[in-house]
């Protein structure tokens, strides 16, 4: 998709690409700013190359305006999601408690995995599978 965006940008040219610049920059910005664990470095490099190509194509000023608008929109969305999450913990405490329990359980599992990888002879105790107990509602 990134290669396609770059090809379309070059094909449209300087004047016809300007209205579509924020739309093109949105996925590129998302890929550059992402920090998830299984990130592909080739994708990040490709997005950086296409951003440089767009910068040369439309000029620094027009690119900067479009990039800053994309950045601003992404930050607004992130803040809105954070606010929604905070409001949900107040409005639905049972859902928030379930989420918190799940997060703590995942953290304990991660800790056990990390210890096992560092010390292969050590085997962490795994909780028994209580299928019905896991499905029960949290009170």
UniProtKB/TrEMBL annotation:
Compositional bias of kind Basic residues: 98-114
Domain U3 small nucleolar RNA-associated protein 20 C-terminal: from-to ranges: 1-116
Pfam family, one: UTP20_C
Cross-referenced InterPro entries: SSU_processome_comp_20 (IPR052575), UTP20_C (IPR057525)
Positions of region (Disordered): 98-139
Transmembrane segments: none
Single GO cellular component term: small-subunit processome
PANTHER family: SMALL SUBUNIT PROCESSOME COMPONENT 20 HOMOLOG
Protein name, entry field: UTP20 protein
Gene of this entry: Utp20
């Amino acid at each position: 998709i990134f290669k396609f965006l770059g090809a379309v940008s070059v094909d449209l040219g300087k004047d016809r690409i300007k209205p579509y610049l924020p739309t093109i920059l949105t996925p590129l910005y998302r890929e550059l700013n992402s920090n998830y664990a299984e990130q592909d470095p080739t994708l990040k490099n490709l997005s950086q190359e296409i951003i440089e190509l767009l910068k040369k194509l439309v000029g620094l000023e027009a690119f900067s305006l479009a990039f800053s608008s994309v950045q601003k929109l992404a930050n607004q969305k992130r803040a809105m999601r954070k606010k929604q999450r905070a409001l949900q913990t107040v409005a639905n405490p049972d859902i928030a408690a379930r989420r918190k329990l799940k997060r703590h359980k995942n953290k304990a599992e991660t800790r056990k995995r990390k210890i096992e990888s560092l010390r292969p002879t050590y085997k962490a105790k795994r909780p028994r599978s209580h299928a019905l107990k896991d499905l029960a509602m949290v009170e």
